[in-house]
Design a protein that fits this description.
ATP binding, 5-stranded parallel beta sheet, Cell division ATP-binding protein FtsE, about 210 residues, alpha/beta, nucleotide-binding, 9 strands, binds adenosine-5'-diphosphate, P-loop_NTPase, cell division
């Protein structure tokens, strides 16, 4: 499903972020990417999301190299990916419902289907009944769950999360990880970058450790 073949990434500054990465993820797998700060975890996820491109090697999705995607195909490809950041970057002047509905509206989905999908996403992250709340009224954990619902609402086949629990206390962090595991059980391929070793160990999933390259 996701394959890295001899992938290296050097930023224009000359900083080498990844060196010769070989990695295969099966469809429906859930993996953690760990390693110290600066080890290249974010870069690895960005290569899958096509937010960055490799300097050497290839990233293949479903057997096809991302380097062969034309400019016009990239938005379509990105729609298959849900990206979750440490800070969910919610729109504070919109309700929870409108925040989650955003990707569907961008995709031009009709009202009733949008409502159905948003309710389903709210249900999966445990926020049913909070649709008319504004983000300022939510706890940090709830805000992050809104961010997750927004990333999931158009049913991405690949879920990428970059330190999704970085701002949360341990109990909430574990809840969030279980939410990802639920989406994984529904069939999504999930990659989570985290430097929280204790939490990653408790999840008992495949773990890839990146070493910092210089
Ligand atoms: P991690 O997520 O494990 O902390 P990153 O992928 O963010 O690691 O960074 C890997 C290395 O690449 C670090 O040395 C970092 O400073 C560098 N780096 C990351 N993004 C950029 C960028 N946009 N420009 C230059 N260097 C970068
Ligand atoms: P075909 O010509 O075989 O029908 P296209 O190249 O036109 O395939 O792509 C069809 C759809 O698949 C597009 O929406 C495109 O974004 C997506 N796609 C193409 N290549 C890839 C790839 N390597 N990984 C993921 N999606 C891809």
């Amino acid at each position: 499903m996701i394959e890295f073949k001899q992938v290296s990434k050097k930023y224009p500054t000359g900083q080498l972020a990844l060196y010769n990465i070989n990695l295969t993820l099966e469809a429906g797998e859930m993996v953690f990417i760990t390693g110290h700060s600066g080890a290249g975890k974010s870069t690895l996820l960005k290569l899958v999301a096509m937010l960055e491109r490799p300097t050497k090697g290839e990233v293949l999705i479903g057997g096809r190299s991302l380097s062969k995607l034309g400019r016009s195909q990239i938005p379509n490809y990105r729609r298959r990916i849900g990206f979750i950041f440490q800070d969910p970057h919610l729109l504070y002047d919109r309700t929870v419902f409108d925040n989650i509905a955003l990707p569907l509206r961008i995709a031009g989905m009709g009202q009733s289907e949008t409502r159905r999908r948003v309710q389903a996403a709210l249900d999966k992250v445990g926020l049913t009944g909070r649709e008319n709340t504004f983000p300022l009224m939510l706890s940090a954990g709830e805000k992050q769950r809104v961010g997750i619902a927004r990333a999931m609402v158009n049913k991405p086949t690949i879920i990428l999360a970059d330190e999704p629990t970085g701002n949360l206390d341990p109990e909430l962090a574990q809840d969030i990880m279980f939410t990802f595991a639920q989406f994984n059980e529904l069939g999504a391929t999930v990659m989570i970058a985290s430097h929280d070793h204790a939490l990653v160990e408790r999840m008992k999933k495949r773990t890839i450790v990146l070493q910092k390259v210089d």
